[in-house]
Amino acid sequence: MTQNKIEIPAVNKIPKTATSTSITWKDLNVGPFPNQCTMTISLEDIKRWCSLYDDDVSLYKDFAPHYIGYYCGQNIFTPFRDIAAGLVYLNVEFFKDIPHSVPLTVTGKVIEKSTRKGRGYVDWITEIKDQDTIVQRNTRSWYFASLTEEEIKKFPLKKSGISIPEKNINNISSKLKILLNQERMNQFEGPGEINGHTNVDLAKKQGNPGPLAQGAFGFGLISRLLAKDYGARFTNGGQLSLKFVRPVWAGEEITASYSYDNKQSIRVSVEKDNKEEVIVGSAKLA
């Protein structure tokens, strides 16, 4: 299929139209995405992203935040605006610093569709390239609920997830915290967005105690901490593999930390104030 180059936003959803819809299980097929996209990360984009995460914008004069690639992995599905699914796994390979103020290419492909316990899972890869050089690759696994028995039978059983190292209580890192209040969550979604992240009544109709916080906050927080402590060993050649194990609701604070046996075996964690882990995983350094 011929790929069309489409300009997508770097830190926002694509503009909403009267015909905007969410992408579903049936819309995704194994193979390359039909769209090849471009994006340019502006200095204003960097300011917006840093403000969402309480990050220091002065750190990014020469390049963009290494954790800024979240939205492009969703916007590549344009004209679909949202994904009617939940994020389960995220693996990010950080090859080089992400440049700002220059056009970048975003491509991707679905690598697997599978099922497990009545849910459908779709794994896809997106790559951010500066000309012909890959600067970042991320692999996401999302689950789609309410599949029919006929659909479940068509696909293989979902394989086991990522391996999580044991926690070493004798070597615990410093910590980073962020309060996921409703205002911050609304700003992440953008003006006028009404969904389970922003609207209390809608969230309760979906059976939740309140709006669900975006998993991207936990990813960004642990990424910031590892970059602070290890610099280019993490952002230029490092890797982060995460499993999203529990929800976080509006008004809750999360804390990122990690433990290690040696600098090559790092267990990462994001937890709530009650010490309940919401994200677990591992990191590798260059």
Could you explain the architecture of this structure?
The chain is α+β, with helices and mostly antiparallel strands and 286 residues long. The protein folds into 2 domains: 1-160, Thiol Ester Dehydrase, Chain A; 162-286, Roll (Thiol Ester Dehydrase, Chain A), CATH 3.10.129.10. It contains 7 helices and 14 strands. It has helices at residues 43-53, 72-75, 149-153, 182-189, 200-205, 216-230, 232-235; strands at 4-7, 22-23, 31-32, 35-40, 82-83, 86-94, 103-116, 119-130, 133-144, 176-180, 238-244, 252-262, 265-272, 277-284. A hairpin with a 2-residue loop joins strand 12 (252-262) and strand 13 (265-272).
- Determine the structural class based on helices, strands and strand pairing: alpha+beta
Number of helices: 7
Shape-level CATH architecture of the largest domain: Roll
Round the Cα radius of gyration to an integer and report it: 18 Å
CATH topology of the largest domain: Thiol Ester Dehydrase, Chain A
